[in-house]
Amino acid sequence: MPIVATLIANPARPELSDALAETARRAVGGGAPDWLAPGIACDIALGADADRTTVRSTIVEALAGAPVDLAVVDTLDRRKKLFLADMDSTMIEQECIDELAAEVKLKDKVAAITEAAMRGELDFAGALRERVALLKGLDTTLFKRIIVERISLTPGARTLVRTMRANGVHCALVSGGFTVFTQEIARIVGFNEHHANRLVVDGGRLSGHVVEPILGAEAKLNRLRALRDRLGLLPRQTLAVGDGANDLMMVEEAGLGVAYHAKPTLAEAADIRIDHGDLTALLYAQGYRQSEFTH
């Protein structure tokens, strides 16, 4: 099966030059660079006998630390039909539970637990229960203000989802966070559906508990499988992206699994790691041209 290597720079710093593209092409003996977006992304076509692992390592070595991400993928079903995305530190730039903790002046303590959980150093469910317990008594009327004042979309989020939706892709937001946030982010970005944990509320304030069972890594994996089966898709027709250890099972199961500015555990396991670009990198990795983007 033919493969393609896609070089991707950050659109905010379009540093992918003709010289860099040619260096990569020569290193692997590929076809002439096909520019998906000038200075940002280009494809280098390779034959069916090319080995993806070898191509990847060869290009990485040839580019010698240039701020360019690399996707090496099969051309069959390159454009996916199902997309699942994590929310916190993936589709948005924050961890929502940390922002809630800021309201009770416990952000540093909660953020440290969040970081350890995302690195896979703590049991996710246990860490979530521990953090939610610290939020007991928080007034739920604060949620809207937190979303407006503290939460920002990751660059490229809207374009990624809207472009995929425009091309018939089913998009699901799956988060180990909370529905009070996913419902709003899903609406703003344009997801078909959203799934997350539910906070228990008592008299307009958080009770310090989360509704069981907790949506964690296995639930994300099960959601991917359920949607894939419901839509009648093959595994290779699916795409998943995340940043932390609780995304690992979902990302490994997807036909194309992406680690976005991710923790080491996920970055090492994913098919593609995006360290420099924004979320539109996932479109370029599927062969979309910038002229095809829906904003």
Automatic annotation (TrEMBL):
Known pathway: Amino-acid biosynthesis; L-serine biosynthesis; L-serine from 3-phospho-D-glycerate: step 3/3
Cofactor(s) required for function per UniProt: Mg(2+)
Catalytic activity: O-phospho-L-serine + H2O = L-serine + phosphate; O-phospho-D-serine + H2O = D-serine + phosphate
One annotated GO molecular function: hydrolase activity
Matches recorded under Gene3D superfamilies: HAD superfamily/HAD-like
Coiled coil: none
Pfam family, one: HAD
Keywords attached to this entry: Amino-acid biosynthesis, Hydrolase, Magnesium, Metal-binding, Serine biosynthesis
Keyword presence, Acyltransferase: no
EC id: 3.1.3.3
Signal peptide limits: none
Family assignment from sequence similarity: Belongs to the HAD-like hydrolase superfamily. SerB family.
Protein name: Phosphoserine phosphatase
Source lineage: Bacteria, Pseudomonadati, Pseudomonadota, Alphaproteobacteria, Hyphomicrobiales
